[in-house]
Amino acid sequence: MLHLEIANMSCGGCAHGVTNTIRAVAPQAAVEIQLAERKVTVRGAPDEAKVVEALKSTGFETSVSEALAE
C-alpha cells in the first residue's frame, strides 16, 4: 500500500488526472482520493516507484507519506 500527499491536487480535475496517471502505470491498482486532505492511497501497484515518478513527471507535487508492503 502506498500513501501519497499531492500538494497541488486542489480540484476534481486534478483528482481525475492523478487517478488516470496512476492507472496508466498500474492498471490493476485501486486508487482512493481524499481531495480535501490532498492525499491518495494506492493499493495493488506492483512498482510503487513508477507510480511516484509518473505523478511527478506529469506535474503533480508528490511525496510519499508512508509505504507499506502488502
From TrEMBL:
Database matches in PROSITE patterns: HMA_1, HMA_2
Start and end residues of each HMA domain: 1-63
Keywords, in A-Z order: Metal-binding
InterPro entries xrefs: Heavy-metal-associated_CS (IPR017969), HMA_dom (IPR006121), HMA_dom_sf (IPR036163)
GO MF entry, a single one: metal ion binding
Protein's name according to its UniProt entry: Heavy-metal-associated domain-containing protein
Protein's organism: Enterovirga aerilata
